[in-house]
Amino acid sequence: MKTCLKLCASVLPALLMVACGSFPLSPVSEQGRSLRQPAGAYRVVQPGDTLYSIAWESGRDYQDVARWNRIPPPYVIKPGQRLQLFPPSGTEPAPRPAPPPPPRVDVQKKPPPAKPAPRVPAVAARRLSWTWPAQGELLERFSANGPNKGVDIAGKTGQPILAAEAGQVVYQGGGLRGYGQLIIIKHDEDFLSAYAHCDKIYVREGNVIKRGQKIADMGSSGTDRAKLHFEVRYRGAPVDPLDYLPKK
Length: 248
Description:
By secondary structure, this protein is an alpha+beta fold. Among the domains are: 38-84, LysM domain (Membrane-bound Lytic Murein Transglycosylase D, Chain A); 130-243, Glucose Permease (Domain IIA), CATH 2.70.70. Helix content is 16%, strand content 24%. The chain has four helices and 15 strands. The protein has helices at 2-22, 51-58, 62-68, 122-125, and strands at 29-30, 33-34, 42-44, 82-84, 138-140, 151-154, 160-162, 167-173, 182-186, 191-196, 198-201, 208-209, 214-218, 227-234, 237-239. The strands form four sheets. Strands 5, 6, 8, 9, 10, 12, 14 and 15 form an eight-stranded antiparallel sheet that branches. Strands 7-13-11 form a three-stranded antiparallel sheet, with no helix packed on it. A hairpin with a 4-residue loop joins strand 9 and strand 10 (191-196). The radius of gyration is 25 Å and the shape is globular. InterPro entries: Cell_wall_metabolism_enzyme, Dup_hybrid_motif, LysM, LysM_dom_sf, M23ase_b-sheet_dom.
């Protein structure tokens, strides 16, 4: 009996250690509330970052990030600055409406005459008119619930990459993981587009770009083959580029 008790006394602590190591402990909490911050609640600005690139990386609307951090236009940020990526209240912003699809014109029928529309500012009246950013086979399509937030277009190193619509370059660099050398263009207050895995780049931040203008050469930076990864985002949310690009 004494031998059995000694054996139990030596084995029991070892079993407890194994059990504790096998199951993760709960985070320390106070009155049932976790003391841990939400993952990615803040982001420290690194050299080369812009407000647009940080918002893109976190899947936020740049206007929301600017508002939460009281950053006025032209949205200047500095290395070492700590940006909040969630609303101060800790709640998500109100969901925004889905982007309107581009108008489909029926070339078979002529539209009936309509009364002239009231005069509105040119910016408000302007509609985006997209063009393909590169020629090539479509390797991968947009996946709303999957990893691909854009389309992948096959090509060769040095092949031209074109701006899909007019706008201003708001980011150019290699600081976003998985994108290689990346260009982000702001088209209006709602839409931005991105061009990833570039080789040689012909534009820089602040440049005003025309629709169809050559902005880079296709490359394989950040990936395993020469291709263009192209994304369109509406108020921070990825949308299917094929809904906006002309039908091939």
